[in-house]
Amino acid sequence: MAASNVAWILGNQFVTENRKPIEFTSHRFLIDYLADNHRHKTSKKSSQIGETMCELLDDFHLAIHKKLNVIHTLHTNDVLKGFVRPKVDPIIQHNPEIVRHMTINSEGLKQFRDNFVFFRGANAESQAISISADVLKIDEKDRSNPSVVEMFESRLDFSEYRWIREFSNPSAVGFGVDETYNRSDQRHWFIRCHRCNYYMYIDYWQSEGDKSHYVDTERAIFACGRCHKELSTADRCNGEWVAKYPTRDEIHGYWFSQMMAPWFTAAEIIDKQENKSVEFFYNFVLGKAYTPADMIVDRAAILRACAPSNIMRTQVAIGVDQDAGGQYYVAMTPQGIFDHGYVDSWDKIEHLKLMYNAVVVCDPNPYQAIPKQMANKYRDWYLCYFKILDGLSSVQWKEAEQVVYADRTRVIDIRANEIVNARMLYRQRPHELEDIIAHWNNLYRTTEEKEDGRVRSIWIKKEDRQSDYPFAEVYARIGLAQVLGGGATLVEGTSGQEPKVTNLTGGDKISVDFSGILQETMSEFDE
Question: pTM above 0.85?
Answer without folding.
Answer: no
